[in-house]
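Students often ask why inverse folding is considered easier than folding. One informal answer: many sequences map to the same fold, so there is more than one right answer. In these notes we will look at a single instance of the problem. The structure comes first.
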């Protein structure tokens, strides 16, 4: 079910910067005030940490995010996976959850090259260890 919400071109520009330029560690996306388009809420610096990222996820509001997740393989090789997050906390309003759920595909389809996708309803589901387990499987 699509909501008819558009994706602001700045979202794609920010994503390309993260993907190609490595100028950003993560991007937080949200809906515009009038709920007509998806916009960039925040772009981090390349030196931001995972804790910084988690601190930018609101406790009671939905968001989408893309994080350039770095990890080490068991043989010592470094890997990086661009990970898409759907953040829909249990405490967020039902209407907001529905609007974010129905608008997700518009954003997700426009971001080419996502390696993993994480659904989070509370902070335990987006904890570093949980995400590391998901993105490192089979790699």
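Output (designed amino acids):
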């Amino acid at each position: 079910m699509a909501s008819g919400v558009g994706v602001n071109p700045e979202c794609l520009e920010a994503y390309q910067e993260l993907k190609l330029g490595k100028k950003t560690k993560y991007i937080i996306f949200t809906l515009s005030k009038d709920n007509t388009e998806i916009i960039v809420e925040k772009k981090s610096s390349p030196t931001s940490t995972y804790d910084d990222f988690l601190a930018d996820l609101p406790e009671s509001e939905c968001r989408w995010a893309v994080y350039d997740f770095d990890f080490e393989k068991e043989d010592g090789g470094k890997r990086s996976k661009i990970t898409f997050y759907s953040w829909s906390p249990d405490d967020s309003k039902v209407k907001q959850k529905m609007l974010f759920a129905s608008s997700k595909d518009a954003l997700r389809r426009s971001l080419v090259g996502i390696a993993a996708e994480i659904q989070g309803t509370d902070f335990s589901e987006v904890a570093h260890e949980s995400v590391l387990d998901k993105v490192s499987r089979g790699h």
